[in-house]
Design goal:
Elements: E1 7-12, H1 17-32, E2 40-46, H2 52-65, H3 75-79, E3 82-86, H4 92-109, E4 115-119, H5 128-135, E5 146-150, H6 158-171, E6 177-179, H7 187-197, E7 211-219, H8 228-232, H9 235-253, H10 262-274, H11 284-287, E8 288-294, E9 296-298, E10 301-303, E11 321-327, E12 337-343, E13 350-357, E14 376-382, E15 386-394, E16 402-410, H12 422-432, H13 441-460, E17 466-470
Parallel strand pairs: 1-2, 1-4, 2-3, 4-5, 5-6, 7-12, 8-17
Antiparallel strand pairs: 7-13, 8-11, 9-10, 11-12, 13-14, 14-15, 15-16
Helix pairs in contact: 1-2, 1-12, 6-13, 9-10, 9-13, 10-13
The structure holds 6-O-phosphono-beta-D-glucopyranose (BG6).
Residues 220, 239, 351 line the site of 6-O-phosphono-beta-D-glucopyranose (BG6).
Family: Belongs to the glucose-6-phosphate dehydrogenase family.
Catalytic activity: D-glucose 6-phosphate + NADP(+) = 6-phospho-D-glucono-1,5-lactone + NADPH + H(+)
Domain Glucose-6-phosphate dehydrogenase NAD-binding: 10-191
Length: 506
Amino acid sequence: MYNPENHIYVIFGASGDLTKRKLVPALYALFVQKMLPEKFVLLGVSRSDFSDDEFRNRMKEAIIKYKEIDDESQIDKFVKKLFYTPISFDDEIHYKNLLNKIKSLREEFGTNGNTIFYLSTPPNVYGIIPQRLTSVGLNKQDDGWKRLIIEKPFGYDLESAIKLKDLLLKDWTEEQIYRIDHYLGKETVQNLLVTRFSNGIFEPLWNRNYIHHIEITSAESIGVEKRGGYYESSGALRDMVQNHLLQVVGLTAMEPPSSLEASAIRNEILKVFQSLRPFKKDEIKNNTIRGQYTSSKIKGEVVKGYRQEEGVNPESQTETYAALKFYIDNWRWGGVPFYIRTGKRLPTRVTEVVIHFKETPHFLFAKHQMNNSCNMLIIRIQPDEGILLKFGMKTPGAGFEVQNVNMDFHYSDLTNQRIPPAYERLLHDTMKGDSTLFARTDEVLEAWKFLTPVLECWKNDKNVPLLGYPAGTWGPEHADDLIEGDGRHWHYPCKNLADDGVYCEL
Ligand code: BG6
């Protein structure tokens, strides 16, 4: 295993939720697997006033609670590498202190000048922190590389994303900036590339000649939990579609890259985004659905509606469900509809890509054929990660009854293969300087360009209603109407990939 060069990892927002749930447990998992450099220091930075020891104890608890790896034996050794310094994000003096702290850690641990700054902070300080770091020279690479990791959302719409880009690129280069989209860190999302481009059997069919339509779903059973404040200014379109779902669209629809170089892969994703057919104002009503969950009973328990959640306006117009139908205007996909949907408080947590192939040109068995019996390839991103192919088979016995059967592969069948969590993979890539699985500025801007008209229309046009749906259901009542064609509807997934009958475990 190639180990990254020695460095200091600085996390802004170190007292926050993401640090304790994902970042530090992932760094610990890397430590246990000996994937950290020999000389490594983690410096937590945020507004709270902790001592090093208090920070270490909090992180120790987090590693145990949010366990990413089954080995607690090395926690004490790991937390010795953790340090903390409080900061007020926009106070210049504090950055001088930060610089001194970094310098003294460098000397003490011999990590040299390589430094990563991870912004796990509220988005309103994504501009100011890099500026302040620049003011004390912490963007300069003469004594070692400096990298800036930025969480989503990168901007709020096209205009604000352009502003943020201009601000950052004044002092930092594109190569120094890593925009995290944790979906790209998921093993099964990366497997989209491998499935498509390492098999001779799929690629010839992967186009408008054989594919009828493509569906991408990312359903969550949880509500907004304690994030009402953030979610109110975001909504499902900004929170999930602009980043995660469009990246999955990119990997599903892209042309084969010329190599596995970061720029080759990102160029192909960018081309897909550039080919997204822009929505005209009057098309948005018929091609998008927005919904918001209302209070209901799930498994006998009363569940709050979105408007009753903490931090949410009781008259909120924020969508917790979004579904879109759109086209990719290029040679491969001309005329093939893409449908994507995401929502909170749906019946189960599932992310999957469903490729619906066209019907056979002549239906020999038409009399017996059930509706919707065309071949489907389901790429399950989570949970029960795997791939399922559905095809027609003769029911044994007289005549020619056709039944749908499944051919399935589950990742869980691979013994002794640990699926590394997304953040573990991505943090390690930032240490190695590999930006393949990070969104580039131009991709992010194209994604905003595509969605900003929808955001504006949803905000201003009262003809596109915000529809309520009871928590625990598959979204607004008429969500199936978006899918064109007689009897067609969304694929309703179950917890287990291969269980897709009427009754299934959710
Ligand atoms: C985050 C969103 O980016 O992704 C959350 O902000 C969402 O609202 C989460 O719950 C979903 O991620 P995953 O990995 O659980 O599908």
